[in-house]
Write a structure and sequence with these properties.
It contains four helices and five strands. The longest helix has about 35 residues. The chain has a five-stranded antiparallel sheet. With about 160 residues, it is of the alpha+beta class.
Amino acid sequence: MNPVTLLPFIVLIGAMFLMTRSAKKKQAAAAQMRNEMQPGTGVRTIGGMYATVKELHDDTVLLEIAPGVHAVYAKNAIGAVLDDAEYNRIVHGDDDENALDIDGAVVPDDASSLTGADADEDTSDDAKIDLGKKADADDAEPTDAEPGKKSEGKTDGEADAK
């Protein structure tokens, strides 16, 4: 056979080999992470639930979801094993490193301080537009009707249907 015709097949097989190799490496790393779990460590399941490991078995793990609430999960359902600092930061909200600076600048709830104008002043040169309905507009006759023609008792929105 001609080597040029075999070249696409060789490239395809090489690409498949590289893809499966990286997938196997990821699976091996995940299995090693799951095997390194110990009781008391914090974990995140593949569903996004955070819990603490209570007991380890061959294929299952007993997790404490809340104080006194336990659930049995498959080891494959553990998405990540978290270190204590990260688990406490996520679950309990412990964030000593990035504590809020209470004495820092106060940001207002509205944008009035950003415009530079006081809220009491009216700095616009435009006249205020009254969007309310005027009383004399209710009594006015429609201007599109012919002066000699009388309206036939139609109300607004009704059309001449014949």
